[in-house]
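Lab notebook, bench 4. The sequencing result for the construct came back, and we need a structural model before the next group meeting so we can plan mutations. Quick request posted to the team channel:

Model the 3D structure of this chain.
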Amino acid sequence: MINSRTDRIRPTRWMGFIAGVTALLFVAAAAPAAHAGTGDASVLKGTWIGTYSGYDANRYESGQEKLVITKVKGSNAQGTWQYRPSAKQKWSKPKPMTLAIFDQEETANGGLTDYIAGGDELGTYIGKYDSSDDSLVFAYVSVSQDVLTLTFDLKRKK
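Done. Here's the predicted structure in token form:
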């Protein structure tokens, strides 16, 4: 309809209805693509052993890493970490760490991927847990240790 005073098209109820339905369709289409939300940290409980590698400001480093997750509640976990430069050496003294699952999504094969962030006294962890192969992969950054940046690739100890 045209408003006689302004010669502009006046929205009708149908136009409002169509705009509302269009908005609902956009929201409905986006909903399945949305992430499922925080996950259950109980999947992290246990002992994880694997490798670490990366650089600090001076050199390349590699060795073995061990995480032992002993406490979980909701999406949060608490435990310790240890390292050793080679399998022939003893593990370092355990140090405390915490982790939180902040997002979760279903994979194409029906498994779950949990996205994880955490920290210890020296740095920050960002990574994921993949249920299809029961693995943890982390990037670790420690500014206090000559800008140390590492990658961890860990498997649950059976």
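The two ends are 73 Å apart (CA to CA).
Will bring this to the meeting.
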